[in-house]
Amino acid sequence: MALDVARVRGLYVSLSDGWTYLNAHELPQIPERVASGVATAFRTSASATPGQVATGSHGLTAPGGGRRGEAFTDSARRAVADLVGASADRVVLGPNREVLLRTLADAVRPRLRRGGSVILSRCADPSLNNPFVPLGDIDGTCVRWAEPDLGTGEWPAWQYRDLVDGSTRLVVVNAAHRLLGTVAPVAEIAETVHSRSRAWVLVDASTVAAYRGIDMDDWGADIVLVDCSVFGGPQVSALVFRDTTMFPRLDAAWEDAPADSAVKLELGPLPVGLLGGVAPAVDHLAGLKETARGSRRNRLVESTGELEDYMHFLSLHLVDSLQWLGGLHLLGITGETAGDVYRQDRIPRVSLVVPGVDARAVQQRLLDNRLITTVSPPDPLLDQMGAGEAGGSVTVALGPFNTTADIDQLTRAVASFG
After folding, report:
1. Organism's domain of life (predicted)?
2. Same structural domain for residues 152 and 220?
């Protein structure tokens, strides 16, 4: 049974405003379930739990209970654990990915004190690399770089056989490029890394979380980063570790926390209102297939499997519709050095260039047609592929609620450039 897109669209109240949203990479639409979850969490966070009882005239005691807000942290951990196929005791929560990455970069320093290497990727989002670049300043530590294919935007897994050796301690990979849509061969990279070193593999899964299921064991990842806001959740991010035995090997951000606890990497409590939106966001993904049954993890597997099939269909329709327009260049897809798009693993995101037309003018034409896209933000890979010299590019990113009619509307607007 195919994904019921009409039903999915009904889960987003914001779609009734007459605009066509093609900017899921920058501002994903927020499901009504998430908005209601956050509102409920803010409203009830200070309320007493049902387990609290009165003790005289001066207060309450809560044997086994507490404030309702305390439960939202636990529910957020469980939801993220279900999302990636882990257990809640391995989940570290943070306000955003930047804070979590800086905390992790500081925490892994003990693994580098005797010399070691860190491998980053030039095709990754700069915010993923930046916290780890200073690790190269540690005595005896070097930073090595995996290079992308400038024709396709892919990053070959074979190069890690040359980059990884016994000194490697950390390898950082983004699961998919946020602007081009190319998906990394994460499992193949992780297998190569683990066969040649004792390094940990950190995978930023944020970009793919809105399009397909995540199983960190299948990936072979040691640490998975998820930004909930990328799939319409609140501004909360999480790091999920392979097992709790990794925590004692890391420096603590909070010294009073147990050495083997995920809490040692958390800088402090998060707003319970935002935490209250994490579980509804994951429940939203788990409920995309109405007939899915069983545990939340089982429902996630069923729903995201169907979602992946639909997103693959939309991705091919998007590329097919745009690549035959005369004079249009799709970065990594069209051109003499591009590969076979039908063999590439992609999510439905493209960055397009209209030769001779500034990207802002292209975006304005699309806005005039009630299409929401963005001028591609600065990105090292897009710059190397020539986007800057061509006047910039416009990024189109689809969400679960988009349809072929949205793509056809985009195609007509772009075709108007002649």
Report:
1. Bacteria
2. yes
Span 278-299, pLDDT tens digits: 999 999 999 999 899 999 999 9
For residue 362, the enclosing domain spans 5-30+303-415
pLDDT at 201 over 70: yes
Contact 190, 216 (CB under 8 A): no
Query: Are 167 and 263 part of one and the same domain?
Result: yes
pTM, rounded to two decimals: 0.91
